[in-house]
Amino acid sequence: MDADELDAFVVIHLPNILYLTGFSGSSGILLITATDAALFTDPRYTFQSKQEVTDAKVKIVRGSLLKELGKHLKSLPRRRIGFEGAHLVVAQKGLLENNAGRIFWTPWDGNVEALRMVKDKSELATMQEAADIACSSWEETLPLVRPGVSETDLAAELEYRMRRKGAAGPAFDTIIASGERGAWPHARPSRKLVKKNELVVFDLGAILRGYSSDLTRTVCVGRASPEMRRWYGAVLEAQQAARHALHPGVTADRVDAAARRVLKEAGLDKKFTHSTGHGLGLEVHESPRLGRGDHSVLRAGAVVTLEPGVYVEGTGGIRIEDDAVVTTSGAKYLTHCNRELIEIG
Amino acid sequence: MDADELDAFVVIHLPNILYLTGFSGSSGILLITATDAALFTDPRYTFQSKQEVTDAKVKIVRGSLLKELGKHLKSLPRRRIGFEGAHLVVAQKGLLENNAGRIFWTPWDGNVEALRMVKDKSELATMQEAADIACSSWEETLPLVRPGVSETDLAAELEYRMRRKGAAGPAFDTIIASGERGAWPHARPSRKLVKKNELVVFDLGAILRGYSSDLTRTVCVGRASPEMRRWYGAVLEAQQAARHALHPGVTADRVDAAARRVLKEAGLDKKFTHSTGHGLGLEVHESPRLGRGDHSVLRAGAVVTLEPGVYVEGTGGIRIEDDAVVTTSGAKYLTHCNRELIEIG
Asked: How far A165 CA lies from chain B's nearest CA (Å)?
């Protein structure tokens, strides 16, 4: 903040507030100045904030947090204020301006996110646990995958097991997509029944003490066709290439390029319609994005997903996704469950 | 749009896009002009958007949707453009301006939300089903509530049952808060075990075909103390007062005032730290807010929650929440499960 001559920084993105203060509520704004930090929240969080917040003063506000913050900003002697341009909506900024008077606003994005990218030992231990919950829940659900079971029932079984193992909930809308629905990378589970000779994509994750895991496996019910085997092999090889490209100092786009090159050689790059992965932590999608144009440098302690895929309209999809942490010498997976093609029955 | 002399309206809030086009993906921008509508989304949704979107052209964009939209806006003959000030973030607006050239921007909020407030017959049928799923899952979980069971295990059982009944997932982070944790209105389930003589608050909801339900019940494990009975009675009476105040033409703040008055008479209004309810539909919190200062008029077809509560630090909380639809003559509940105090064991 000093380097950018900011007198204060207004944080509204809740995962950033959680990271900086420990506060896990759904309503809050954090104001950081050179000398202190104040969290504005509403009366629903009076007791919770007392227990959770250690490094900031807490102000319980009846009514609009932004109006109150605006008045507070007005009282500051100097008013060059940083804000999160990627999170503050236009109407919020207007409301702040109406209440704060003359202020010099400076978008100040990505600074907390950059701190969050590098996980410390205790964060990594939690993320390992979250990964273990996803993997073992997946392994225990696998025996239930057979012709006639519905996608929603499989989702119920998966999420139940994650909860019973201590997850605070699923890290995102669980994806279960069988047969041609697998060609929708973000399909939500439907009442569709799994059929013989279909591929089934499972994409799931657990939240544990705020941190997410994110795991995808694709299985074949019945015997895979030679074409399916070829696709699966190419996706797995693309993932391995990304894994080998991952080491301290590499940029995000180069990890993506490594996976994409393998799929291009297999003539499948046009069927790989998303980026290779993303940062993982307090958010299930956080910095960096392992895709074209993201030149973020990955340092030891960064956790990313590696999740190449191939999607064929009318037939289905294959995606293999693991969570990997960058180490001082390379990278290692947090998710350890079997990555080879499983054929059921 | 004609009345406000808009040449186009940019929609970025996903529930509004879902309402207007049927598109359920996680990435999209909708541009509406006098003559047509275009949905911009990314290649992950190529197949999904073909199936879901009927009333808009679909443009699949590699790279930034906003840059592409900006170029498109630049090509329009007249450029007075409405946008959602409550959803467009400052950085997105900047990116649009950089790519669209000279544009006269007009915040145009609340118009789609106002349409969404009044549910039609088919929406109400879906919301009734979503409410039934929440109620029956709650009723089936009740026999598992006993000393020694953990909050997370109860959450697992509840969410499992909602899924098995066809829910696409929980409508929000399920709240299970026992004993003094009940004084946190938004407590997430923890590994804490339920103890004898504690109140336990359950707040849960199901998503069905995009629509949410939202239900809260509070039970006592063991016999309730006279004080707990008095609190429970006051909260239930406050809810009944809100229910009686709910009819076509009433404003949102008056429904809140009806509940608050009862708690004030009982000397408990300072312990009721949130608003009486909120609109429910494609979002679990949508317009209106049943609280001070919201003068929205409720019309037949509006669905709102009624959820007064009382929170006592160190002891616990009581909240009773039902979903109610405004009818042509009054209001009726969608959630039918028992609202009386249940004492277990």
From this structure: 9
* Inter-chain CB proximity A44 and B273 less than 8 Å: yes
Nearest to B180 by CA among B156, B201, B150, B158: B201
pLDDT at A217 > cutoff 90:
yes
Residues 6+ apart with CB under 8 A from A206: A130, A133, A134, A137, A162, A165, A167, A169, A170, A171, A212, A213
Report, as an integer, the average pLDDT of B133-158.
Answer: 96
- As a whole number of angstroms, the distance between CA A25 and CA A325 comes to 28
Distance from CA of B313 to the nearest CA of A (A): 7
Tell me the CB-side half-sphere exposure of residue A99, using CA atoms within 13 A: 16
Task: Determine the pLDDT at residue B216.
Answer: 98
What pTM did the predictor assign? 0.90
Name the closest residue on chain B to residue A13, using Cα atoms: B89
- DSSP per-residue letters across A257-285: HHHHHHHHHTT-GGG--S-SEEE-SSSSS
| Residue in B with minimal Cα distance to A87 | B89
If you average pLDDT over residues B204-233, what whole number do you get?
97
pLDDT of residue B102: 85
Are A174 and B169 inside 8 Å of each other by CB? yes
Number of Cβ pairs closer than 8 Å across A and B?
135
Q: Mean pLDDT in chain A?
A: 95
- Is pLDDT of B65 > 90? yes
* Contact yes or no for B90 and A89 at CB 8 A: yes
Q: What is the 3-state secondary structure (H, E, C) of A126-157?
A: HHHHHHHHHHHHHHHHHHHCCCCCEHHHHHHH
Would you state the pLDDT for residue B79?
Answer: 84
Rounded Cα distance between A287 and A280, Å, is 8
**CA nearest to B192 within chain A:** A166
Residue numbers in B near A81 (CB within 8 A): none
Average pLDDT over residues A52-80: 92
CA dist A79 and A74 (Å) reads: 8
Cβ neighbours, 10 Å, residue A4 = 11
**Closest alpha carbon within chain A to B314:** A47
Does A160 reach chain B within 8 Å, measured CB to CB? Answer: yes
Mean pLDDT of the B108-124 span: 96
- Tell which B residues from 190 to 229 touch A, by Cβ distance under 8 Å: 191
Query: Three-state DSSP class for B344?
Result: strand
Q: Give the mean pLDDT of chain B.
A: 95
Share of chain A above pLDDT 90, in %: 89
Helices A252-265 and A226-245, packing angle to 10 deg: 150
pLDDT at position B55 is: 87
A274–chain B Cβ distance below 8 A for any pair: yes
* SS3 category, B83: strand
Residue B123's pLDDT is 98
